[in-house]
Design brief:
Elements lengths: L1 E5 L5 H11 L3 E5 L13 H4 L9 E4 L2 E4 L1 H11 L11 H18 L1 H12 L9 H20 L12 H15 L6 H10 L3 H10 L1
Parallel strand pairs: 1-2
Antiparallel strand pairs: 1-3, 3-4
Length: about 210
């Protein structure tokens, strides 16, 4: 039995969306990020699952998988027939990895920097001067992203993969933070958010 610990539309939403796409049965366990209460991520019991006290965290029997990128790849590997991650084409898999690592290392980092220095970190640790730099860095990364997405329905190959979840959820994150996202990238994201699996995942966190 799969159990996913998550919170709203944080990075854990990527994993929940991936589970809905996979068709795998999963218990979704909401937790409160940063809380020491019973259902919080800073409890001793939760830190036995994720020692950083973060989400998402996926449990599959005795296996514990942390980090959203690792989790969605694990889910995809559980249902190879759905081709949610390339398995038969080495070049396509390399391209999938390239885009995925780009999202995790470049595209989302300015957003996380903005979030940390806006409300996540204690006020005495926040550096407001970096907020403008975060906007600049994100705009720069969007130009690179456009080369991956331009004139495409899906970012890898001719069908939906987990890489689309990474890109779309990160663009949604940007819009929630009121970062500028070009109309063509908004359209790409909006189209993916109309997928039944995404709507089902949104319903589970609403």
């Amino acid at each position: 039995m799969l159990t996913l610990y998550g919170s709203g539309q944080s990075r854990s939403f990527r994993a929940l969306w991936a589970l809905e796409e996979s068709g795998l049965t999963c218990v979704y366990q909401p937790v409160q990020i940063g809380s020491r209460d019973q259902a919080g991520t800073q409890t001793d019991s939760y830190k036995q699952l994720n020692y950083q006290g973060k989400v998402p965290c996926l449990i599959d029997d005795e296996l514990i998988v942390n980090e959203s990128g690792a989790i969605i790849n694990y889910i995809a590997s559980c249902v190879p027939e759905k081709q949610l991650i390339p398995t038969d084409d080495l070049a396509l898999r390399a391209y999938y990895d390239e885009i995925s690592f780009f999202v995790l290392s470049d595209l989302e980092q300015p957003l996380w920097t903005y979030g940390k220095h806006s409300f996540v970190l204690p006020e005495d640790k926040q550096v407001k001067a970096v907020l403008a730099t975060a906007h600049w860095e994100f705009a720069k990364s969007l130009k690179a992203l456009n080369q991956y997405v331009v004139d495409k329905e899906f970012v890898v190959g001719d069908h939906f993969t987990m890489a689309d979840i990474l890109v779309a959820q990160t663009l949604q994150w940007a819009q929630r933070f009121e970062f500028d996202v070009p109309a063509d990238l908004q359209a790409y994201k909006d189209n993916l958010y109309q997928r039944p699996a995404c709507k089902q995942a949104l319903a589970r966190v609403s």
